[in-house]
Every structure is written in C-alpha cells, then in structure tokens.
Design goal:
Elements (H helix, E strand, L loop, with lengths): L12 E2 L6 E2 L7 E2 L10 E12 L6 E10 L4 E7 L4 E6 L9 E8 L2 E8 L4 E2 L6 E3 L2 E6 L2 E6 L3 H8 L8 E13 L2 E6 L8 E11 L5 E9 L2 E6 L7 E8 L2 E8 L1 H4 L9 E9 L10 H4 L9 E8 L2
Length: 310
C-alpha cells in the first residue's frame, strides 16, 4: 500500500457525520441503504501483530497470531519476529489436534513457552477467532509476553508466581482476509486507551441521473458515515484523513481489481487500510530513515483484504 496514491476528483469524496440507517449486522452496525439485504462477508483469516517489550532487557520482539478457517482446517499459527511460523495448532484435524497443552520452543536466541486451551472455545460463524472459552499464554525468556482469551488471566494467576515478570505488549497491526459480498464489518480499537469501534465498509450502486447506477463506496464508524466515494470505477484508489478518538486516522482504499482484473476467477481483491498517525506527521508515509526514530511510538494499522466472490 506504500504506492497507493490519491486519484479522485475534488467532488468524489464526501465526509459526513450523519447517522446511517440501522442494519442487523453484528451489533446493529449500519449500511447506507436498508432496502438492500446483502449477506456480510466472512473472515477467512485474521492476523494480529503484537509488539513485545521485555521488562528486564528492554528488548523488542514481534509476535504474530493468525487465526484461520477453511473447509478442512481451523486453528492458529504463531510467527516470532516476522520469521516463518514456529507454532501451529490445527483444531479441526482428527489426528493432529491438541486443543489443550503446553510446548517449549527456541527461536534464535530466545526461549519461548506456549500454554493454550481451546477445548471449550466458542466461535462466531463470521470469523475464525474464538469469542470466549479459551486462553493462549506465551512466555519469552521467562517473561509473560502475551495473554489472550477470557480465561487467560485466571490461568496466569494460578500457574505463575506473582514474581514472574510481565512484558509490555501492544497490538500494532491487524490484518483481515474476507470473501463474499461487498459488505464488510469488523471492530477496531485505534488506541490502547480508546473505545472499541464498529466499522462497516460497503460498495453499492446509486442512481446518478437517467437512472444510471454508479458504484459508491461508503465507510461507517459507529453508525456514522465518515466517507463516501462516488464514481468508484474512476476513483478506485485514494485516501482520506478522518478523526477517531481525537486521533488522525488515514483511510486508504484500493479497489482496482474489483473492476479491472478479468483474468481472476473471482472479481478481484480490494484493500482497505486504517492507520493512526501523530498530528506532527505532515506526510502520509514516513521516510525509511525517519521510521527508526519513531520505533518507540505505538501506532495501529487495520488492513482489510476484501475478495468479491459473489
């Protein structure tokens, strides 16, 4: 997405604070028209990247947790410092599943321990992530690095001593792969102390004189329309800055393959990105030489890869 450019006309994007019509998607999220009943897309995989800072050495690590679900597989993989997966768990296999257990591994100079229990995990049909009834605890160099699941805190208090050091963890990136109709819903927390917001992205046709329907892209946050892109076939790439919880959030879209990818078996994959940034950043992207200076500042990015298959 680094080369995504703004290529829309002056009147192609409108920012609105009016409320959308109510729609029974997730927790009453909204879409632009209540008369059309699109089936929301389904998440095939969700990847969360956490930045870990060990308390004893102040060393930074990155742990990526990927939840996936296909017709034959369901489970998770763990990547450490952006390397190949070091831990895999398939909860759908008859022969290799182990829904509860522990494991010790080494990755480079780091020693890692995994503790998990997915035996009673509950799932929603629209996402591969468990909703509740599970825990995943990861230790790095004898520090509690990552604690996930509604049962995790109880396990930590029972299994580990109070003197066990706790690393600092921050969610810095979330990637979602979806497929289905051009209606996508998710939730995101743009700052560690901020609220959890509902996001709905929708592409639909609207009349523009002579009863000609042109594709329009709408983005809603908490039932508020924050952006509307008209004539999407001409404005298939672009960006707009919005404000959420007092933060500057860059919203980028690239739906080129929805319209201009005839060689694909489906209708192509669009990319949407929400990225928080400081008000001191005058540019959308930092130069590589300046990125190192910003490494201690926690920012958040949400990427949605949306495949139109219906």
């Amino acid at each position: 997405m680094r080369d995504v450019i703004s290529c829309f006309s002056e009147n192609a994007v409108s920012v609105s604070h009016s409320s959308c019509s109510s729609y029974s998607f997730s927790s009453n999220a909204c879409i632009s028209s209540p008369t059309l009943t699109l089936t929301p897309s389904i998440q095939n995989s969700v990847s969360c990247v956490y930045k870990i800072t060990l308390s004893t050495t102040q060393t930074h690590h990155f742990i990526t947790i990927t939840w996936c679900k296909t017709h034959s597989n369901q489970g998770l993989t763990v990547n450490f410092n952006h390397d190949d997966p070091i831990f895999r768990l398939n909860t759908n296999s008859r022969f290799f599943r182990k829904k509860k257990g522990s494991k010790f591994l080494e990755s480079g100079d780091s020693k890692m321990e995994f503790f998990w229990d997915l035996s009673n995990a509950k799932y929603d049909s629209s996402t591969p992530e468990p909703i509740d009834g599970y825990y995943l605890v990861i230790l790095v160099d004898s520090e509690i690095a990552l604690v996930l699941g509604d049962m995790a805190e109880e396990i930590v208090s029972k299994k580990f001593k109070s003197t066990t050091p706790m690393a600092k963890s921050s969610l810095i990136c979330r990637r979602e792969h979806c497929s289905g109709n051009t209606l996508y819903g998710t939730k995101a927390q743009f700052s560690e102390s901020g609220d959890l917001h509902e996001i709905v992205i929708r592409c639909s046709g609207e009349n523009e004189g002579l009863k000609i329907k042109c594709p329009v892209l709408s983005v809603c946050i908490d039932k508020k329309t924050v952006i509307k892109v008209k004539r999407l076939q001409w404005n298939f790439r672009g960006n707009q800055t919005i404000f959420v919880d007092g933060l500057l959030v860059d919203l980028l879209w690239d739906v080129h393959d929805w319209f201009f990818n005839p060689s694909s078996s489906s209708s192509g994959c669009a990319v949407f990105m929400f990225r928080t940034r400081s008000g001191f950043d005058s540019r959308l992207w930092l130069e590589e030489k300046n990125a190192q200076k910003e490494k201690d500042r926690v920012e958040f990015s949400l990427l949605i890869y949306a495949c139109k298959t219906i």
